[in-house]
Specification:
mainly beta, eleven-stranded mixed β-sheet, transmembrane
Length: 654
């Protein structure tokens, strides 16, 4: 039994020696990375080794590099530090540009842990020449044209020479970069192998829309003062004419007010001539680039076409519709200016108007108000035709046809001359004035008011109630009837009956009877007299409401305090969880269901889960007798009081 632990310790020791032995080998902690440096500046090539025991050295372009004061210097002269980083002072293209490697000799000849880093590039920057553009083997001066026919491809070359590293070339057409249609190749210069020539060729499929656009080549290099340098040329694309229309009115054009100038802009190379024509007309509307209407009239409405032509071809004609808007004009109204109709007979009005857009119609009746010279407008119809099946005196008055359209969001209205409608017939008492019933308090004065319309004027009118008759302008005791007064409406009159110091006996229907040469009408209004409410009664009602409110508040406060006391006794230790569970089981057994266990300890820090029946009870007697007995004749309020203790509420700690 003792030999087995010894063998395990031996195996562990061998394993530990193997691990520590491996960890003692030399390894790179940080290898050098490619670096760019400006001429004459210093730069550092990092190289750090863990467990360094060998010697550091550097080589450039596969040749060893010595340590020279103020040229190649160690960053840390302590050979035991593991830092083999190298300072390169006053970098130059001829001596320092190339591929560098950091090397460390082996710890000893048996370990074979010598290290060589990945070759990294040290680039000594050289500013390249300004880029230039070549087309068809010829250099294109900045701002000059590159001419190509529409539909053909143009191969344009951009060259940037004698740069280190080579410049990165980008193409732009206007403000848009060309990415997919260009490629770049870099090659060492023949006369200076440490500098580079960068060439990028872009293939451009010439289109009409490209004519006149600027093609730009941009060379990106850190040695440029602005980090970039560009050259621009202009694309000269030849093609047949293409036209576009300028000046099409964005909004409605109103007759006699707006000016319209339509321009046919040609896009062609070489330039083209323009022809304007009006559809449906043989003659040429204009040979100028623009077609002008100053101002525009409804006769100018129509469709116009524009076409351009040059030596290469003709454009497709482009058309524009000119729709001149104008306000409505009333062309005719029917019937005559003055129309007379019998009461309860039909009448029809018609209106015709011209406008663009087509106008909408309204028939308006002007009704005079009580103020001199003021009228109320009543819309009788929203169509060009107004038909009234049964004419009443309310329809009597002056009628107008109003035509409306909308131009540029503004309503344009035209009102016709008025048509006067006269209504003749028997008297007609307007039913809706003042209402069917008038309510007043005993002891007050009452006014019974009715409006009657008649043409000709009523020759006889009488107030009637019971066996009493009172003529306008006369009275009986406390009853006084006024003379008929002219109402604000034509042929309408107001009748008034005053009753002073009304009593309960005055509650009845009061009738107005009116007669003229064409007929008779009668209508009644009911007067309701009410007893005023005594001040003592009002005070008694207010006092009773206040007492009921205070009683409700006291009952609510008592109920809240009772529930807090019940819960406070339980929290002070007046019950045990086992008692609660036993009590809950008794109650649940009576109701035919099981009782859940109390899962939280009374001594714990977490919340205590207590059944609702144990938490909300009013007295020990209630816990022993969970069933409620309701006596016959018990009111619903008594039932609510007995069960109030069973309402679940959030527990409150006292």
């Amino acid at each position: 039994m003792k030999e087995k632990p010894r063998s395990n310790l031996l195996l562990f020791g061998l394993f530990w020696i193997q691990i520590t032995g491996i960890s003692c080998l030399q390894t790179f902690d940080r290898e050098p990375v490619s670096t760019e440096v400006n001429p004459g500046s210093d730069t550092k090539l990092d190289c750090k080794v863990l467990n360094k025991k060998g010697s550091c050295s550097w080589q450039k372009d596969n040749k060893p590099v010595g340590i020279y004061f103020k040229k190649y210097e160690w960053v840390n002269a302590d050979e035991t530090s593991g830092d083999c980083s190298l300072w390169i002072r006053s970098a130059t293209l001829d001596f320092d540009d190339g591929e560098w490697e950091c090397q460390i000799t082996a710890s000893d000849f048996t370990t074979q842990d010598a290290l060589t880093s990945r070759p990294v590039r040290l680039i000594v920057r050289v500013e390249p020449q300004a880029p230039r553009i070549e087309y068809k083997a010829s250099a294109v001066l900045p701002g000059h044209n590159v001419t190509v026919k529409a539909g053909e491809k143009a191969s344009v070359k951009c060259v940037s020479r004698y740069g280190n590293p080579p410049a990165k070339l980008k193409w732009f057409l206007g403000d848009d970069e060309i990415v997919a249609k260009s490629n770049q190749s870099n090659s060492p210069e023949v006369d200076n192998r440490r500098t580079w020539s960068a060439v990028s060729i872009v293939e451009i499929a010439a289109e009409k829309a490209m004519n006149g656009r600027m093609l730009r080549c941009v060379a990106l290099h850190e040695s440029y003062p602005a980090k970039s340098m560009g050259v621009d040329v202009r694309l000269d694309v030849t093609y047949s004419p293409e036209v576009r229309l300028v000046g099409t009115p964005p909004n409605d054009v109103e007759e006699g007010r707006d000016h319209v100038v339509l321009k046919c802009i040609t896009d062609s190379n070489p330039p083209a001539s323009v022809i304007w024509r009006r559809v449906g007309k043989q003659e040429i509307a204009s040979l100028e680039e623009s077609l002008q209407f100053r101002p525009v009239f409804r006769r100018d409405s129509g469709t116009y076409t524009c076409q351009a032509q040059n030596s290469i071809g003709s454009s497709q004609p482009i058309s524009v519709a000119l729709d001149v808007k104008y306000a409505p004009d009333i062309e005719s109204i029917r019937p005559d200016r003055v129309t007379t109709s019998q009461l309860f007979h039909p009448v029809t009005f018609t209106c015709a108007a011209n406008g663009n857009p087509a106008p909408s119609y309204e028939w308006i009746q002007k009704i005079p108000t009580s103020l001199q010279g003021e009228f109320i407008e009543v819309i009788r119809s929203s169509e060009s035709r107004l038909h009234i099946a049964n004419i009443t005196y309310e329809h009597q008055g002056e009628y107008f046809c109003r035509a409306t359209n909308v131009i540029n969001g503004n309503e344009k209205r035209k009102l016709s001359d008025g048509i006067t409608l006269q209504v003749v017939g028997p008297p007609h008492i307007i039913r809706h004035v003042g209402g069917r019933e008038i309510v007043v308090m005993r002891g007050e004065d009452a006014l019974v008011r009715l409006v009657v319309c008649a043409d000709p004027r009523p020759r006889n009118s009488t107030w009637l109630w019971g066996s009493v008759q009172v003529q306008p302008g006369s009275g009986v005791g406390k009853y006084q009837a006024d003379d008929l007064n002219q109402d604000r409406r034509e042929d309408c009159y107001e009748a008034r009956l005053h009753i002073s110091d009304v009593d309960i006996a005055d509650s009845r229907n009061y009738y107005l009877s009116v007669e003229n040469d064409r007929g008779y009408d009668k209508y009644g209004v009911h007067l309701a007299v009410r007893e005023p409410l005594a001040m003592a009664t009002l005070l008694s009602i207010a006092t009773g409401c206040l007492l009921v409110f205070l009683l409700c508040v006291l009952m609510a406060v008592y109920a809240i305090r009772s529930e807090r006391c019940c819960f406070g006794r339980k929290c002070r230790g007046d019950f045990r969880p086992t008692d609660l569970e036993s009590e809950k089981s008794d109650i649940d057994s009576t109701m035919g269901r099981k009782t859940p266990r109390i899962e939280a300890s009374m001594m714990g820090n977490g919340p205590i889960t207590i059944p609702g029946e144990a938490m909300y009870c009013s007295s020990p007697a209630r816990r022993q007798h969970p069933q409620h007995t309701i006596l016959a004749g018990s009111s619903p309020e008594a039932i609510k009081v007995r069960r109030a203790a069973m309402v679940l509420q959030a527990p409150t700690m006292v």
